[in-house]
Write a structure and sequence with these properties.
2 domains, membrane, Rossmann fold, 11 helices, single chain, six-stranded mixed sheet, three-stranded antiparallel sheet, Ca-activated chloride channel family protein, transmembrane, 350 residues, 11 strands
Length: 350
């Protein structure tokens, strides 16, 4: 990770020569990097040329005088400084860069109320493990797939109860769904009209361009103080779109166990008329599902139908770092020039 400080002395930081930093650069002109590999070869060719063609003076020395002094190694310093300066200038010409990109996603969002039936009949086990738990599972998946949509929850049996207001806190919504059980509402029955009225009341002050109710139930309206059709027409007046899902199989379905642990069965029927009328009034759709997979498919279909367009704004910030290596290259070149006028260089050869 590179943080450019724009300090006058930032080029002194040795981190600029770490392999991890060099590897992460984007090189605009990588051709110059290949030229760096030729520097050792050019140095070798220069040495061979000088060894072959330079003038030599024969000097006779005694063995005791042949021991080299450590300062003789300094003669390699000038060519080394020159090679390093050329390499760093080539790195600067390759133009190392770092580009950071920021993506902002936004959407106008949709307001959605999930209206879940928690009456006793939702304990029927024609779904795994039962109807209510199956509905809770797909509700979690539905919430996880949304982006910046406000979602609320209403539960109902004999009465209707607003469990969560419209919110984008999906983690909180998931925890509310985890806590849903049959003991939340003591009064028995199925108050579909009251549930629609509570959901509409939560959404009536919303200024969202798209408002949706998803109603899931397995029975007919048997409780409450408002007719489902009247409640649907009230929701329609607030431009709320309504999807209804009838959950449950027809015929004999498992419901609990007897004292001997054997499955018990009962005959299940459902009048779809009311749910179909609600969907028609709300310009939505009615779905009848009889297993977990079909329920998941319905929620996935509604999820696609009610997707808001997600818009993206991308910001690209490109920074050059060639000046770091150019500064080092120039300084090393100046150092090479200085050593040219010292005992470390042979002016007769150069």
């Amino acid at each position: 990770m590179i943080n450019r400080t724009n300090s006058l002395w930032e080029w002194l930081d040795p981190m600029w020569f770490r392999w991890s930093i060099l590897r992460d650069f984007e090189w605009v002109n990588p051709f110059y990097l290949y030229l760096i590999a030729l520097l050792p070869l050019l140095w070798l060719l220069r040495w061979l040329f000088m060894y072959r063609f330079r003038e030599k003076i024969e000097v006779a020395l005694f063995d005791a005088q042949e021991k080299p002094h450590w300062t003789t190694w300094l003669r390699f310093l000038p060519p080394l400084l020159f090679a390093l300066s050329v390499g760093l200038v080539l790195m600067a010409l390759a133009r190392p860069q770092k580009t950071s990109e920021q993506v902002d996603q936004y959407t106008e969002g949709i307001d959605i109320m999930l209206v879940l039936d928690i009456s006793e009949s939702m304990k029927i086990e024609d779904f795994r493990p039962n109807r209510l738990e199956a509905a809770k599972n797909v509700a979690r998946e539905f919430i996880a797939g949304r982006f910046q949509d406000r979602i609320g929850i209403v539960v109902f049996s004999g009465d209707a109860y607003s469990l969560a207001p419209l919110t984008t806190d999906y983690k909180l919504l998931t925890s509310y769904i985890d806590d849903i059980d049959f003991k939340m509402i003591q009064k028995g029955g199925t108050a579909i009209g009251s549930a629609l009225a509570v959901a509409t009341n939560r959404m009536r002050e919303s200024d969202s361009k798209s408002k949706v109710i998803i109603l899931l139930s397995d029975g007919d309206n048997t409780a409450g103080n408002i007719d489902p059709i009247t409640a649907a027409e009230l929701a329609k007046a607030y431009n709320i779109k309504m999807y209804t899902i009838g959950i449950g199989k027809e015929g004999r379905v498992p419901y609990g166990r007897d004292v001997f642990g054997r499955p018990q069965y009962l005959d299940n029927t459902m009048d779809e008329t009311t749910l179909r009328q609600i969907a028609n009034i709300g310009d939505g759709s009615f779905y009848r599902v009889s297993n977990n997979e079909a329920l998941s498919e319905v929620f996935a279909r509604i999820d696609q139908l009610e997707k808001a367009e997600i818009k993206e704004t991308r910001y690209r910030d490109t920074r050059d770092y060639y000046d770091i290596y150019l500064t080092w290259g120039v300084l090393l070149f100046l150092g090479w020039l200085l050593t040219k006028n010292t005992f470390m260089s042979n002016a007769m050869e150069d």
